[in-house]
């Protein structure tokens, strides 16, 4: 017997009902899926069965509820109704999981009597990372399996666990042999045979908790959650599982979910979810990526080492080249030390570290890079040095090998021009530390082939990075916008704000750190050196703040010298008297009488600077789409994720306010300041918001 609801198929084989969800690409739980599941269960209810197996077709069980449905009134049947039908089914129901089992998909599995999973399957509740809380029993049923502390960690972090760990945590009952439908069904049938009666999680008590462990899980969750209201709500809900009747707790959880999913924060995070995926694409690109079997890295300094660690972590073999034996050995030792440290901290097993070490070859001969499919240079930021290296590598590398530069601002077209393989030259701009930071700017030169770009995008994915594609331009997307932001922060200080007032306004908005604290950490000498190089070509009409130059002249390079914009003594950061004197002198030299700024004024100037530069970046075609800029600023520059990125944030602000912000930044910058079409840039996002408002009220 078979029945087909187009996205859910049901058949009965040997007294087992098999319900297959088939909603490509990832079996997101849409209204049609929920309706199909409900009618499949109704269809099977009256039959004489040993049990029911629910599984997903294709690459996943269920990758969560359809995220695009969360912004509108939810259509019936809702997920709790489907789960209630599973619990009320007279037959034991087993979820047979492979691929992704996330969010609503995981909650559905928790509603089943039994769970089996294929090796490598991932299970988790990412709702908190999307600004919400689980809404279909996740916070109530999970603690009944794992205990309160573990459930709190999983719910509040959104961490995904592999099937093997899920078995240890008692989330699943058994592992399947493999992810084929036959293996999944066989494992589910075996589980049903071993436990033929109903075993509803809601009927089980929450295991007694160790109060200390729960307190620690709560403190960790609050710290990681950076004060976001939905994290506090998730903690409250998990605790409720041990305090309230399950009916009441489920009702409270649903109500919290219904409220949070329609808050600005959840819309912002959904915007980013889709923007992050769009950023991995270049419109019109059809070429397949080339295989990358070995990666070469030239330069074993901080950046080269970080890139090396990132590539090793992705499972690829690396050849790291340095200019002499001493530098080569120093780089190898530093990488070895960082692997040892990771093992000591329990972040890496000794076996995994040994495997990474075995995949690393170091050399002081560029010729040893001949068998690499991709070579990334991370040498000194100097055009002549890079051109000489590119010319040499071009002679050594095999035809078709991709040659990438990690430059953060130099003209890559110029570098490509010295090679005979301009089509294979790209920029891969990593952010430091390169194995930790998610952002990877892929820089598209005028001559880069589709194949080279497709390979770069696939490489980013392999490394687990968030790519954003940029055209060649000074600072590409991220550093260019950040530089405009930093410049305006300096204007503010010159006009009367203190560095701390500026930083506080930025962190109050949600930035991880303020611009001056960031400058002090990175080292003010780096930008100083660049300014000196560019002094001859600077537009003399442009406003120039010389405070950072004066700080550097006084040896105040930032944290590493004990002082920059702030003083650093004994691990303590404090406002600097010496810096204040330098700032006052600089103001006096220009005849500026300092004035006071409100935090709101500072914030608007900083954000205005970001928006204007973003508009220029889009007008010039450096960035492909507005969402890419949001993704870059969130992943590379500490912009608060929960605000959805600067453009998403701005699209909610009244037009008059944005216009006022633009006038203020243009006025502060003075002559020579290029103004971008900010309203044009925000137009598609404002339209999206209008659509959201209509859908929210059910009028779309
Ligand atoms: N709802 C709607 N669409 C979803 C989705 C969801 N829950 N999960 C994935 N998709 C879409 C993606 O937008 C993408 O669509 P596109 O090709 O049009 O851009 C497509 O499915 C494939 O996703 P992608 O992330 O590119 O594939 P992947 O193989 O790298 O990863 C997952 C697959 C499931 C691991 C990943 O998509 C994921 O983590 N999804 C989020 C799951 C989630 O948060 N669910 C809980 C919601 S509360």
Write up this protein:
It contains 28 helices and 20 strands. By secondary structure, it is of the alpha/beta class. The chain folds into three domains: 2-262, 2-enoyl-CoA Hydratase, Chain A, domain 1, CATH 3.90.226; 295-472, NAD(P)-binding Rossmann-like Domain (Rossmann fold); 479-689, N-(1-d-carboxylethyl)-l-norvaline Dehydrogenase, domain 2 (Orthogonal Bundle), CATH 1.10.1040.50. The strands form four sheets. An eight-stranded mixed β-sheet has the order 13-12-11-14-15-16-17-18, with helices on both faces. A seven-stranded mixed β-sheet has the order 1-2-3-4-5-7-10, sandwiched between helices. Strands 6-8-9 form a three-stranded mixed β-sheet. Strand 19 and strand 20 (572-575) form a beta hairpin. Helix 13 packs antiparallel against helix 14 (350-358) and helix 19 crosses helix 24 (599-619). The longest helix is centred in the C-terminal third of the chain and has 21 residues, at 599-619. The chain is globular, with a radius of gyration of 28 Å. Bound molecules: coenzyme A. Residues 25-26, 28, 63-68, 100, 102-103, 126-127, 130, 277 line the site of coenzyme A (COA). The site of coenzyme A has 16 residues, from strand 6.
Features:
alpha/beta, globular, Rossmann fold, 2-enoyl-CoA Hydratase, Chain A, domain 1, 7-stranded mixed sheet, binds coenzyme A, N-(1-d-carboxylethyl)-l-norvaline Dehydrogenase, domain 2, 8-stranded mixed sheet, 700 residues
